[in-house]
């Protein structure tokens, strides 16, 4: 178990946080997590995909075939920007581009087996990282963490229903 100053995790009397204190601590935790992400990003191997490249690979894994213009729309970028991104991924053999059989003016983008294998490998790496963290927690803490995350996402999701999409 990770040492902590929080009395609620040491079996002592639980101190409840006011909403403002909880918000402040969550934002601090978020900043620390982002700092860790930035540090690890600088350690990223040159042969690893960037976050946007991973996002593209996930889209193509889930949809199998996507046109260049549709991918640009999904990513909210211009066709020329997505074309540059696709070219990089094609050079790395993670994607391939074909002329559409239905419309010869359209270019269809597909993930390659190499790209799909990369996604599988990265998924297993993420699982191992999460496992290492969860192994540091007690079974009760793991259960509490999962339940709180599920509840938080459900609350956030229900509060978003009927509201404008982010960035609109």
Automatic annotation (TrEMBL):
GO MF entry, a single one: DNA-binding transcription factor activity
Protein name listed in UniProt: HTH marR-type domain-containing protein
Matches recorded under InterPro entries: HTH_MarR-typ, MarR/SlyA-like, WH-like_DNA-bd_sf, WH_DNA-bd_sf
SMART domains: HTH_MARR
PROSITE patterns (alphabetical): HTH_MARR_2
Domain HTH marR-type stretches: 20-154
GO BP annotation list: response to stress
SUPFAM superfamilies per UniProt: Winged helix' DNA-binding domain (SSF46785)
Species: Sulfobacillus benefaciens
